[in-house]
Amino acid sequence: MRSRFRVRVVPFTTDQEGHVTLIRRLCIGAVMMAAMLLGGAPAFATEPLTTSGFVSDPDGFLSEEQRETIETPAKSFYSTYTTYIDVAVIPNFSGQEPLAWCEATLEQSRSAQQGILYVVAYEKGTSVSCAGLKLAKDASTRPMLEGALRAARNKHKTTPLTPEEAVAGSRTFIDFLRSDYDFRARNAAENSKRRQAEEKRREEQKKEENKRNLVVNIFMSALVVTVIVSNLWVWIRKERELEQGVSPAEFEDVAPPVDTVRRDALRAAAEARRRLSEAEEQVRAAEEDWNFARAQFGSAAAEQYGRRLEAAKAAIARGFGTYKQIEQTSDSHAKRRLATTITEDLDKNLPPLQDARKEFAAQREKRSSLPTQLADARERLVEELADLERSKEELSSIAGLYSESMLASLQDNPQRAAALLESARSALDTASAHIEADPTRAASALDTAQRALTMANAQTDAIFSAKTDLDAIRDRLGAAIGALSGDIVEVDGLEADTALLAPLLADARAAIALGQRALVNDEDPLGALENLRDVELRLEAVLAPLRTQEAAALKARESAQRHIRDADATLAFARKSLRNRQGSALFDANKLLREAEQAIGEAREALNKDPLQAPNAPRGTIMTPLSTRPRDTGAPVEEVSDDPLTLEPDDRGPQRSRPHPATRASTIHNNVTGRIL
Questions:
Q1: Among 431, 464, 497, which residue terminates a domain?
Q2: Among 135, 459, 580, 669, which lies 20 to 30 A Cα-Cα from 544?
């Protein structure tokens, strides 16, 4: 077939016109080349890719040695658990949502089913992770990945990331997953051994019970015969006395048999109470030990210890809730069943915590040398001083993004951190001076220094995470505005009396306007969020009867789930703001935070039982936990400053019906953080 294209070859001419043409073409080429050199090569975004091996680095950001540093633990993890952990190192996410980019890459990679993908976007200074289809079905996968991602992001110190930070974050992510998988594997093995031992014990117990039953049956048969004969003799005697005209003698009542069921129930309840008291003491001691472990070995090393501690606390909280049910019921069978639930829950969650304490005790024995500990503490001091300078820069950078009122709780964090680090430096000097002459005093000073370093780290970490926390508040505020706006639009489609709804609709529009001003001016976003939620709940209560049953249930569930998520986020922010604050009134604030935790649990339970009641419960009176922000001058750790925090009753009027847990939890949390900010 003859080609449609023709190539014309024009030889160079020797006349003036040929020379001009040649010069013109060369000039055009030179201009184009200069434009490319000055403007730079076009930027190519990183689209979702297909991973190659354990580490995918399309732009060659890492060296071969750094790639091997990541591949070695990933290969070890796969050989042990036949689960891929692939790492992708890219410049950015091409304008996509990080999680969407991760999932798109995962779908076309080998880890799409039984694997985990960790993505580092070094230009953005961030990372994200996602799991394959089989792993995603496991409810424990998501919190495990979130914990690993938090640990990895703690290694990200700069933006853009350095190759060393990318490697450190990747190693931390893999090591975290490895420790979690190892823990679950050990736990499964222990449970298997425990089940086998329990089955063997039950078999032996069954044999003993059969023997006892035989003896009991013989005894009961004899007892029945004895009772029958005794009653017959008493009847015959009474008949004879009546025949003889003699008044029958009074007979003593036979005492009823002992209520063994009630006795066993009371014993089980008493045992459950004793176990709860012992568990509280164990957890209290373990928490003190955990804080010391974090100060001595670092937060990452003590993370698994912290998870076991939280599991034990949750078991104790559940136990006290169950014990209230024991006190409220008169059914002996129910009492015993509930008591057994408490003891089994404690038996499941306390032994792992004790094992963690033993592990760290063994580590302390290995590092008992004071000179070694002093050297480690001085290294931590250098690191914390560097973090302090970075935190000052971070605070200055975010000052232009948020109002002064929103950053009020962070303004003196650098000063507090500096005072704590100076206290740590002084304590380390004291320890060094007395390490030979007075080891006891040296150890005490070292402990003071380690605690001061931990508290200083909390002050700087609060600054580093402030932008993320405040952005989350703005996102929640925007979602609340959208939800309430949707309810206003929905009124027109429902058969509602607009005249009766006019005051409520006016409140809704005013709440939306207040929320929009807060978004624009950063003025009290938490207060605006609480106002929006209050109006939304009142409007939902009016609109729910007008909807179909299916639509009402769906709307109620969505609203309640959003409120519970907001309550969770607000509670976490409140805890972070109160961390390492001092003052006696903080006991009351922490008490309210525990009440909020319980309220969230109740809210989730209520949501599962009756979604129509979860978001529309009446609001009641709560206690505002904080009247002012806590004062903390950054004094040495040994000093405890007086704190003017007081509890004030809410100004919403007299006590009304107790609010639904979802509403109550959300309200408590917003009041806590609202006062802090």
A1: 464
A2: 669
